[in-house]
């Protein structure tokens, strides 16, 4: 059975976004690209949600995730022992997730998307180990992470003040109809 046109379109879009992201990373430098991603990623979720394509759910957020995975792979090639030791605890989990993609009742693209999201989490976990080589880089990474929380925390305070803190609720509320 051949994949549908929508599936092929989503794959082509994902590959194009990934290639563009890698080009940007090489133009900026790998370490600067990682710091830039860490700085803006937490603030851009609403914007990334608006850019998702109808088919395959890929958009700018997917391109950023692909970039994070590619950067982690490049850093792994640069220092395999350092990054490998950070990814090793994730290996069993990711292998199980990949195996579940095959047996998933979900469509293949949706299941693969979930796997790549989990892989991007592992990459984000490992990237600071590649960046921090000195006290100066540790301070730089810590500063970027602290600055990256300014917009989401400010937004949360505005939501709390206005009474529309939907993203902060941990217990779903159900409306009762009488």
Structure description:
The chain is mainly α and 178 residues long. It has one domain. The chain is built from 8 helices and no strands. Helix 1 crosses helix 4. The N and C termini lie far apart (51 Å).
* Integer tally of domains: 1
* Portion in beta strands: under 5%
Average pLDDT, rounded to a whole number, is 78
Q: How many angstroms does the end-to-end distance come to?
A: 51 Å
Q: How many helices?
A: 8
Main sheet specs? none
Structural class of the helices, strands and pairings?
mainly alpha
In the predicted model, the low-confidence regions spanning at least 5 consecutive residues are none
Helix content: over 70%
Shape: globular
**Estimated radius of gyration:** 19 Å
Order of helical and strand elements: HHHHHHHH
Oligomer: single chain
* Secondary structure tally: strands: 0
